[in-house]
Amino acid sequence: MPMNNASAPTSSWTGMVPVDDTALAVTDTGGPGVPVVYLNGQFATQGYWRRVIAELGTGWRHITFDERARGRKSKRSADYSFEAAVRDVDAVLAARGVHRALVVGWSYGAVVGAHWASRNPERALGAVLVDGAFPHDWLDEAMAQRIRKMFRRMNLFMPLLRPTGLTPRMNADQMADSNIELGRLSRERELGPVLDTITVPVRYVVASGTSLGSRGDEQEQIRASLDAVTVRNPHIRIGAKVASNHGAILKKDFPAVAEAVREVAGLDRGDAEDRR
Description:
Blueprint: E1 13-19, E2 22-28, E3 35-39, H1 50-56, E4 61-65, H2 82-95, E5 101-106, H3 108-119, E6 124-130, H4 141-154, H5 158-161, H6 172-185, H7 188-196, E7 202-206, H8 218-224, H9 226-232, E8 236-241, H10 249-252, H11 254-275
Parallel strand pairs: 3-4, 3-5, 5-6, 6-7, 7-8
Antiparallel strand pairs: 1-2, 2-4
Helix pairs in contact: 1-11, 2-3, 4-6
C-alpha cells in the first residue's frame, strides 16, 4: 500500500467546507493512507460510496463530499455549473490539506474526475472512472426536450424527498440545465481531447444495460465510444465490464471499483519507484 507523502490528520473529520457562495458537507477519514476523493453522480450523495469504502478498508484516506444543494447539509448556490463542480474538488482538497489524490468518480463525477486529472497531472495520482466520461454525441434537441420533460415530471414528487437528502434542493429547470450541460461536455469533440491529454493512470469500470432516461441500446452505444479512447491514450484502460446497470453499479459491483482503485494506486507507486 503506497503512503501519502503529505502530512495527514490521524483522526477523522466531518464538517462544512466554504466555497464561493456556498458550503459543502465533507467527510475525511484521516490517516496516512493514500488520499482518495470520491466524486458523486450528478444528483447523488456521498453515501453511495459506502460499499466501495468498506471494501477498500481503513488503509486508505477516504474523502467524500456532497455537491452544492445535494445531500442533507450542503448549501444552495447561484452556480450549479460543471466548472463549479471542478472547483469544488480543489476547494475540498485544499481545505483538507491534500496536495495529491486519487480521484474516483461515478457518472457525472467521472466527467468531473477526467477533467480534474487532465488539468492537474502533478496532483492526480490517477483516476477510476465508473460508468461515465464516455465521449459520445448523445445530446440533440430532441434529447434536450426529453430531459426537460423528465425533470418536470420528477419535480412533482421530488420536493417531498428533499428533507431526507435523497433528492437535490434544485428546481426542475436547474437539474435539466445541468444534465443538458453534461451532454454538451460529453460530445466527442469536447470530451475526447480532455481524455487524450490525461497522463496519469486511468481505469474505467463500465456497467451494462440502461440508465435513467435512456432507451434501448443507447447506453451501450455511448459506452462503445471508449474503445477509440483506449487506442489513442495508453494511460487509459478498461479495468472491468460488469453486469450491473448504471444505477446499481456502486451497490452490486463495488468490489470491481475497489480493485480498480488498488490497481491505479499500485501503478503510481511503481512510477515513483522508477523515478528514484
